[in-house]
């Protein structure tokens, strides 16, 4: 049955894309601050626990609202998506701490993504089996039963992960005397954003590319479901089969990601993935015209699955390899912000096209514009090895991440302390240091301070 009416001034087919738009705007605004606040406290594990608990409870609330008040369930979905973003901010902060080896990091990211999609496949198959076993075939009852199962799974696996697996982490940043945690978070994210834009080329262009990639990739699921339902007249069962195929082939997609990334580098791997996604989406928008194309959709779903399994571990491995240590949660908050800052744009444009009766085929094809921009911007990231070395130099104190007066003083003290430890070790081994060595030490300290101050002045000139 085709519904031509409007609810709250919009078509029912625009509801899903509007929810994605709202979530994208809220999350993009708040995630960097959330990450910075996590870095300024030792509560990273607590943030993960609390966000997981609220996420689970909101799913339960949605189950209750779904039968009686669909708009309340839609609002709950916005809150669920926001809690999930906060949860990801805490979880992703652990990822760079697993290893400093790029090859291992790529393998870890690929395995985590493979496990995620494998679990999704297992859950989907189990739900089909359970619903058929208890004789539930009506759509509303099926949704209710599946949401209850989701709630139970979240309670079990979140509970185990946050009590037995994730560990406490100390605060990675210090709060200045007299400053609140929220003020410290806002100040730090301002300095970090300014430093990335002005002083860290690889990070800047990667985050810009990511904002376009994730805008299209995140909107793809909601747009694809809307397209299959309204343009191709798929039933819920047919939609489920297409989604199942996508999830199944996302698993080998992670293996492709690991192979291509190690064979070349994460930047070229990501560009190759974007090319595959663009070609498949362009072909789908031309070929998929109306009902009766179920088998053709399944073929396209396989390629989309490979693309989805390829893009996410590659992005994470690339980002973790070019960020410095000590601000993991904040920088992961910046990453999530980049992932969602344009997340509202593709569904909004698709909704506008849908409301204006423009063909959904054009709306589907429009996703390629974001992928193309991301593909081109990735060339500006530069050489991957140089970007990794830049991050290592920040870790070693050779260059500063955010340059201000306090950072200059701290860096000088850090370098002098390191120099003092070296001289002290020489005293113990060699039996002392003569006057000439002391003079050299003082001269070296002066040169280091002059060098850092010069870096700061150069940065201020650029600003």
Nutshell version of this structure?
This protein is mostly helical.
Can you describe what's shown?
The chain is mostly helical. It folds into 2 domains: 12-41 and 95-133 and 171-395, Growth Hormone, Chain: A (Up-down Bundle), CATH 1.20.1250.20; 405-462. It is built from 17 helices and no strands. The chain has helices at 15-39, 44-68, 70-92, 102-133, 139-165, 181-199, 201-230, 236-263, 266-287, 294-321, 328-340, 345-355, 360-365, 367-377, 384-395, 405-430, 435-462. Helix 9 (266-287) runs antiparallel to helix 14. The longest helix has 32 residues, at 102-133. The chain is globular, with a radius of gyration of 25 Å.
Q: Characterize the overall form.
A: globular
**Major sheet summary line:** none
Mean pLDDT across every amino acid position: 78
Structural class: mainly alpha
Provide the domain count: 2
**CATH fold descriptor of the largest domain:** Growth Hormone, Chain: A
Top-tier CATH class of the largest domain:
Mainly Alpha
Amino-to-carboxy terminus distance: 59 Å
List segments where confidence is low: pLDDT < 50 over at least 5 consecutive residues: 405-463
User: Would you count the extended β strands for me?
Assistant: 0
Per CATH, the superfamily of the largest domain is MFS general substrate transporter like domains
> What is the succession of H and E elements?
HHHHHHHHHHHHHHHHH
Classify the helix fraction into a percent range.
over 70%
Tally of helical segments: 17
> What is the annotated CATH architecture of the largest domain?
Up-down Bundle
Query: What fraction strand?
Result: under 5%
What is the radius of gyration computed over CA atoms, rounded to a whole number of angstroms? 25 Å
């Amino acid at each position: 049955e085709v519904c031509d009416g409007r609810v709250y001034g919009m078509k029912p087919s625009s509801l899903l894309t509007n929810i994605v738009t709202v979530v994208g705007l809220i999350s993009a605004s708040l995630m960097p601050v959330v990450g910075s606040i996590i870095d300024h406290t030792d509560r990273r594990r607590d943030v993960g626990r609390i966000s997981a608990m609220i996420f689970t409870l909101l799913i339960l609330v949605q189950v209750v609202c779904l039968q009686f008040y669909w708009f309340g369930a839609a609002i709950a979905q916005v809150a669920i998506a926001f809690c999930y973003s906060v949860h990801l901010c805490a979880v992703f902060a652990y990822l760079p701490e697993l290893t400093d080896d790029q090859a291992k990091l790529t393998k870890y990211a690929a395995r985590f993504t493979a496990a995620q999609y494998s679990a999704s496949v297992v859950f989907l198959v189990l739900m089909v089996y359970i619903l058929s076993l208890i004789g539930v075939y009506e759509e509303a009852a099926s949704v209710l039963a599946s949401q209850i199962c989701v709630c139970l799974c979240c309670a079990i696996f979140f509970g185990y992960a946050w009590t037995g697996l994730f560990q406490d982490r100390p605060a990675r940043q210090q709060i200045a005397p007299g400053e609140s945690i929220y003020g410290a978070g806002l100040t730090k994210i301002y300095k970090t954003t300014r430093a990335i834009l002005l002083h860290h080329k690889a990070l800047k262009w990667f985050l810009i590319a990511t904002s376009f990639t994730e805008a299209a990739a995140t909107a793809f699921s909601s747009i694809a479901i809307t397209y299959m339902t309204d343009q191709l007249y798929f039933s819920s069962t047919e939609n489920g089969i297409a989604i199942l195929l996508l999830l199944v082939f996302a698993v080998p997609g992670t293996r492709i990601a690991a192979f291509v990334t190690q064979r070349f580098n994460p930047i070229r791997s990501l560009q190759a993935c974007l090319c595959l996604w663009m070609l498949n989406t362009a072909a789908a928008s031309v070929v998929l015209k109306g009902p009766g194309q179920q088998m053709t959709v399944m073929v396209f779903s396989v390629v989309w699955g490979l693309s989805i399994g390829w893009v996410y571990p590659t992005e994470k491995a690339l980002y973790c390899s070019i960020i410095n240590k000590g601000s993991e949660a904040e920088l992961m908050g910046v990453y999530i912000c980049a992932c969602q800052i344009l997340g509202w744009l593709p569904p909004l444009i698709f909704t506008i096209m849908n409301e204006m009766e423009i063909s959904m085929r054009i709306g589907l094809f429009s996703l390629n514009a974001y992928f193309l921009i991301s593909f081109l911007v990735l060339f500006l990231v530069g050489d991957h090895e140089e970007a990794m070395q830049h991050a290592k130099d920040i870790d070693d104190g050779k260059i500063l991440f955010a340059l201000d007066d306090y950072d200059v003083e701290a860096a000088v003290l850090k370098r002098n302390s390191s120099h003092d430890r070296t001289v002290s070790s020489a005293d113990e081994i060699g039996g002392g240091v003569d006057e000439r060595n002391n003079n050299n030490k003082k001269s070296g300290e002066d040169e280091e301070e002059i060098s850092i101050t010069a870096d700061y002045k150069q940065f201020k000139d650029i600003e």
